[in-house]
Design brief:
95 residues; Serine Threonine Protein Phosphatase 5, Tetratricopeptide repeat; mainly alpha; 5 helices
Length: 95
């Protein structure tokens, strides 16, 4: 490859795009932006060893903005918002 050519990997583009989105955000909105970005990019999140889904964990952590995002985009994310953990509790239990 000649030295005048520029190679930019897909990872570099994704990282640069994400860094631009994160510029000037608070910690809470950065948390939300990071998770929303990863989910939109197709990242799959498995339930934990207790059967708690991402929505369960979001509710448990009190991240209302993220919970709203998950519920609003449940079809796009293939998310079962009525899923229960191993104790039969849905995400509403954790609010």
């Amino acid at each position: 490859m000649p030295s005048s050519d520029i190679f930019i990997s897909k990872t570099d583009l994704v990282t640069s795009s994400f860094e631009m989105q994160m510029a000037g955000r608070s910690t809470v909105s950065s948390f939300y932006a990071l998770h929303a970005y990863l989910l939109q990019a197709g990242c799959q999140v498995a339930a934990d060893r207790h059967g708690r889904t991402l929505l369960h964990q979001t509710a448990l952590s009190g991240h209302l903005q993220m919970a709203q995002y998950l519920v609003m985009h449940q079809e796009m994310l293939s998310l079962d918002v009525s899923a229960t953990d191993h104790d039969g509790r849905n995400a509403l239990f954790y609010w």
